[in-house]
Amino acid sequence: MASPAFATVTELRNLLRRDRDTLTDDQARLVLDMVSAAIRRECQWNLSEEVVVGEVFHAAGKPSIWLPTLWLTSVDAVTENGSALTGGVHYAWTREGRVNRNAVFGWSSGPIVVSYTHGYPAGSRQLQDVKAVCLSAAARIPLNPQGLRSWTVGNEALTAAGSGLDVTSALSRSEKEELGPYRLDPL
Predict the structure, then answer these.
(1) How many CB atoms lie within 10 A of CB 68?
(2) Euclidean distance between CA atoms 47 and 185, whole angstroms
(3) What letter does residue 158 receive in the DSSP assignment?
(4) Same-domain check for residues 111 and 143
(5) How confident is the model over 75-120, as pLDDT tens digits?
(6) CA–CA gap between residue 83 and residue 108 (Å, rounded)
(7) What is the total count of domains within the chain?
(8) Burial code of 102-114, b = ≥16 C-beta within 10 A, e = fewer?
(9) Distance between CA 176 and CA 40 in Å, rounded?
(10) How many whole angstroms separate alpha carbon 35 and alpha carbon 146?
(11) What whole-number distance in Å separates Cα of residue 5 and Cα of residue 34?
(12) What are the start-end ranges of the E strands in 24-182?
């Protein structure tokens, strides 16, 4: 299942001062989904509201597993080679997504299944920051659907800042900078 967009159709329409006739639900959803996916790619994790996830890892001999998150709220269950482990006894975890094996030789060569909860609380400052970036980027697309860098209408010419690639990218350089605190692997 795809992760939800960071903003709503209504929020985008209100920002652009458009109605359903000039920006349909399908068009708005497509733009918001595209930009939200670009944000998640930029941040390198499934940035979202709190959600429970289950994943399989292979970390033979390594002391730690890094979960793909920057905001781990709980590790709900861990099994190693099919055996349930106990938090605080067999492993410990950090908010940044590191799960350390409390064993001399680290994790075994078998599959490690981790069920965890991660993401930000609904309405949090972090999600509001990301929503602002999403709306900023999404607002450009209906205004310039072909991603033109320059165009002329009658006697007037307009040139957008940046290269053609910058104009057609879902995220601008400044928006990527705003997402810096939420990037899993900072540049």
Answers:
(1) 12
(2) 13
(3) E
(4) no
(5) 999 999 999 999 999 999 999 999 999 988 899 988 999 999 999 9
(6) 11
(7) 2
(8) eeeeebbeeebbb
(9) 11
(10) 16
(11) 8
(12) 51-57, 64-66, 72-80, 83-85, 91-93, 98-101, 112-118, 150-153, 156-159
Distance in angstroms (rounded) separating the CA atoms of residues 19 and 16: 9
Structural domain of 114: 51-118
DSSP annotation of 3 reads P
**Which amino acid is located at 152 in the chain?**
T
> Whole-angstrom Cα distance, residue 100 to residue 91?
5
* Residue-level length of the chain: 187
pTM of structure? 0.79
| Cα end-to-end span (Å), the chain | 29
Q: What are phi and psi of 84, to 5 degrees?
A: -70, 135
Q: Is residue 112 part of a domain?
A: yes
pLDDT tens, residue by residue, 137-153:
999 887 655 555 554 55
Q: Is residue 187 part of a domain?
A: no
Q: Is 1 exposed, middle or buried (0-12, 13-18, 19+ CB in 10 A)?
A: exposed
**Per the domain annotation, does 150 fall within a domain?**
yes
Asked, for residue 125, whether it belongs to a domain, the answer is no
